[in-house]
Amino acid sequence: MKRNVTFLLVLIFMLTSVSFACAQEQGERPSGEIKAPVSMEEATTQVPQAVPDEAKDAEMTLTLEECVKLGLQQNPSIIAARKNLLAAESDVKRQRGAFGAPVKTTYGYTHNGDQPTLGGVNTDYQDKWAFTVNVSQPIFKGFELLSKYQKTKLQRASTEASLYNAELTLISNIQTSFLTLLQGRMEVKSKQDSVARLQSQLDVIKAFYQVGLRPRVDVLQAEVELATAEQNLLIAKNTVDSRSARLNTLLNLPIEKVVDYSGELTYLPFSMTLDQCIAKADKGRPDLKIARKSVEIAEEDVTIAESGYYPDVTADFNYSSAGGDPSVSTNKYNDHNDPDTWNVGANLNWEVFSWGQTYYDARRAEDNVKKIKAEFDNTRLEASYEIKDQLLSLKAAADRIGVGRKSVEAGREGYRMAMARYQAQVSTNNEVLDAQSRLSDSEAQLIQALSDYQVALAKLYVAMGDMNPSLQTN
């Protein structure tokens, strides 16, 4: 009699649960009403946006844009690239100095083994001190000086483009790390929800088992599924910690510093066409700028090599003072005891024949120009492909967001119905676990699609050579 009463109470509970579930479904979906499709912007509401546990204890809070700005200020690779640019500017100034006249001086002492004489008369000091000055102004060096100066200016422009390229690379790394961190947090929240659903399912199964309505194997199966979900949750949390440490490294922050990286994975519409993206990249990509400068530098090398065909013309001024004491103030062997002599003149130095060295050096430089031009063409082709590839990735991720949103909706409805059927004793535990697994998979796919979309968007801006710290598309 007592067993019958217990069974009757359980039966009444199940019927009440089924009635409540049906009433709730009718309340959610009135007769004849079709739910409007959710827009892309609303797709992120289909998956849980995670609130990090460390937000309470965070020493600082950073958005994506703030992370990029901080990284550009503090990352050692950017600091090194800026110093390299300063070195290139100094090289331009150094080469500019070659247009001026170098001033050379010498000061020395000479001891002759014998007293210099001529016909028994002393003609110079046995111990002699001398001081000389030479000023040589280059007048024409076959365009070598001008070409070298132009080359250093081009190298400075190339170094400046290299700095911009390093900044874009860092921005890409920071944005990718930031977005994958947000993805990891959302996955943690999704897995926490999965653990909560499996725990609730386990509680229901235990309640049925205690009254003899379910076998022990259902309890064991639910416990295994719950343990697996808890392990997956631990792995997801560890991944989040690793990505936070990576982001700290890129920002040159202490690796253990607790930072609240604040943001959400959202859909950001992008409207530029392929031709517009390629045109923008042709103007803004730093590697294309570097390639263009490399061609111009190689052309200057041709001029430098051909300068060997021309003579060197210089204007020279020489001054010397010699005497018998360190002050070289007097010289008794000169007229009027004057130790000073000077002269000015012009000199032409022309290497008429060098056995083909100049000719083949010029040929080598010309061939190098052709090689670098071919490399430049290849760089442009690779840039166009990279942009096309990122646009395709962006479109594919956008389509996956829409599909993933519908999958999450269906998964949640399927799990709700499976639980109601199980509580009504018209389905098995496997059906509930399968519904839970499908829901978790659909949430993971939507989270991955959202992350892939924004990562592709970030890489697309970098491929166009465009700095966009906040990834705003308007």
Put the structure in a nutshell.
By secondary structure, this protein is of the alpha+beta class. It is 62% helix and 12% strand.
Neighbour order of strands in the largest sheet: 2-5-7-8
SSE sequence, one letter per element: HEHHEEEEHHEHHEEHH
Q: Give the overall form.
A: elongated
What would CATH call the homologous superfamily of the largest domain? Outer membrane efflux proteins (OEP)
Described by strand count, sense and barrel closure, the largest sheet is: 4 strands, antiparallel
The pLDDT mean sits at: 86
Beta percentage is 5-15%
Would you mind describing this structure in some detail?
This protein has about 475 residues and is α+β, with helices and mostly antiparallel strands. It folds into 2 domains: about 35 residues; about 350 residues, Outer membrane efflux proteins (OEP) (Up-down Bundle), CATH 1.20.1600. The protein is elongated. The two termini are about 75 Å apart. The N terminus is likely disordered.
Layout of strands and helices, then pairs:
Blueprint (H helix, E strand, L loop, with lengths): L1 H27 L31 E3 L1 H11 L1 H21 L6 E9 L5 E2 L2 E2 L4 E14 L3 H67 L5 H35 L8 E3 L12 H11 L1 H21 L5 E12 L16 E10 L7 H67 L5 H35 L11
Parallel strand pairs: 1-6
Antiparallel strand pairs: 2-5, 3-4, 5-7, 7-8
Helix pairs in contact: 1-8, 2-4, 3-4, 4-5, 4-7, 4-9, 6-8, 7-8, 8-9
